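Hi F.,

I've been meaning to write this up properly since the lab meeting, where we talked about keeping a consistent format for the predictions we share between groups. The idea is simple: the sequence comes first, exactly as it goes in, then the structure tokens exactly as they come out, then a line or two of notes. No screenshots and no reformatting. I'm using this chain as the first example so we have something concrete to point to.
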Amino acid sequence: MRFVLVGPSAPLRGGIAIENDALACALLQAGHTIEQVSFSRLYPSLFFPGRTQFDETTSSPGQSHARLCLDSVNPLSWRKTARTVERLWPHRVTFQWWHPFFALCYATILAHLQRTCPEVTRILISHNTRPHERMPGQDLALRLVARLCNEIVVHSRSEYDLTTKLAPGALVHTVDYPLLGKVRTLPDREEAQRRLGVSGRVLLFFGYVRKYKGLDLLLRALAQVPTELAVSLLVAGEFYEPVKQYRALVQTLGLTERVRILDHYIGEPEWPDLFVASDALVLPYRTASQSMSIALAYEFGQPVIVSRVGGLAEAVEDGRTGLIADPEPTALAEAIQRLYTEFLPSSYSTSIEARRQRLGWEPFIRVLTGKLDPAVQSSVLTV
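Output, unedited:
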């Protein structure tokens, strides 16, 4: 089949660009023809809270295939992109969806394809049915785009329920986030810890720091963990909120010697050190749809501690691949203590490896190519 993948690609940074490029590689390896259409400008600088939208540390295999022609705020580029996609004669076109900001841009392209080549299957890959921060018109934006698509793919049952509620009649599939599947050389744990400036028992908070991700809850939880357990926290990611307020909280809680903050975007070359140096990934989110970080932790053989919100708990087998807690400090502190007092690394490894075996790209590709049993076409795909 000929696919066109519309969405961010390297050198744009972030998990959606990483997954989109990994999807391109997986489809290529499965024998399909791939073209990628990416953004020449993803966000206007005025609305982007980070330092830069580009990651120069990673050379993605998908990068050389991407046409950087889509400007999110230039309607002329939307029409040009629509004509470009049409001329590529695809069988299927996928659109990465995570924020209603892109609704008009995507709707323009989708409407053009619906009108000029209705035989092309248009698929929305939705990471967030609703944005993490509530905004006016968010549900209307999803409905607008969903009506112009033939199918929608989501990554958790809670997102499936929300999507079918907001877009009744839509054909929605659920498939787990696949592992990226890259071959990585893992460092020695002691060397990784030395490079990162940590030692002993270490928990990892990974990714952009935003309020909904609950870093403050985790810091308050860590303060409740008995000091004799000697647990420290490594915070690795760019802060989209003032870092000084978190440093002040660390000091107030008496955690100065137990928290290490790396305030910058974490590119792929840094991932092995971070995960090997840590005992578990912690996602203390207040709200969530799902997170690619969980699959990433499994890829490195690490358990996860997650809040019982959104689709996070769906990706964790409590007591087997990780622990699930309510999104408040005391419950998170209890989960951390359980990690170090009730479980050995060997107790997780077998379950995580079994989970890894189920998180390949084959189920995702089966959905995108339409090779599903007709009896399950409109239901959740169990993988």
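Notes:
The domain at 189-357 is CATH 3.40.50.2000 (Rossmann fold).
DSSP finds 13 helices and 13 strands in the chain.

If this format works for you, I'll send the rest the same way.

G.
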